[in-house]
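quick one before i forget lol
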Amino acid sequence: MLLLAAAGKARAGASARDALRSYGLRDARLRTVAWAAAIVAEAGLAVAVAIDVDAAFAAAALLAAFALAQVLAIARGRAGAPCGCFGGRSRLGWSSVARTGLLAGAFLALPLLPHTKPSADAWLGIGLGVALVGLAALGVALLALARELGELRLAVAPQAALSIDHEGPELGSRVGLIDRFEGDPGSRWLVAAFTSPNCSLCAALEPSLRLLANDPDVELLLFDEDADGDAWEALAVPGSPYAVVLAPDGEVLAKGTFNSLYQLESLLGSAQVHA
């Protein structure tokens, strides 16, 4: 715990130093000295306790002093301010006082425990416990990473399908491809999706295509590069995956290369604008 606290302070850097304002340290130089001294004291005592268990008394005294400082800061109305215990994110409160007091009590009791040498089974149990704690920490880290990736994806604005003027059929033109569709009266948009048998992205987009096909306003038809080469050539399709949105009369309302469901739906949005 001492090493964890020292590492947290060192990693937090400026935010940990600024947290010392909560204890009345207004001078920046004095805060830097106190921050460095706390790191050295905690790390040094951690090593000392590992070497000689009697050093735990000094660690208990240090933590008791930290708890007293937190109580005085709370009494001055600083509850909720950064406490700098494990870096810049820890907050002052009675919970932080209780945590620091419990740690002080644990270090105080450590030298008083009976000295025993663990058996082989005990060492195996300790190792298993450490491994389980490590797996739990890894699980938490993976969840945190997944959350950060999710926030990053939400922060990055999605892009519409790529539509180049001189690729594919001209917007506003009418194509004979309309004859391939069944012409369901309830369909508002006719979507021709062009795929290739060796296109891994096309295979990955199959669920998105099935989802779009379930839309009652859409009639979707797939055109394979090998089986429907004539349709590819007639519409000058540049590659796959590619989609063309047609009106019921065969007018080209939107076109473009897509690589996600959002981009495929953006073609329907473009078609609605041009309809």
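fyi The beta strands are 189-195, 218-224, 242-246, 252-257.
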